Amino acid sequence: MPKDRSPTRIQKKNRAAILDAALEVFSTHGFRGATVDQIAGEAGLSKPNLLYYFPSKEAIFTALLSELLDTWLDPLRELDPEGEPLEEMLAYVQRKLQMSQDFPRESRLFANEIVQGAPRMLEALSTDLKQLVEEKAAVIQGWMDAGKLQPSHPKHLIFSIWSLTQHYADFDVQVRTLMGEEDPFEAAPAFLDTFYRRMLTPTG
Question: What GO annotations for molecular function exist for this entry (predicted)?
Answer without folding.
Answer: DNA-binding transcription factor activity; transcription cis-regulatory region binding
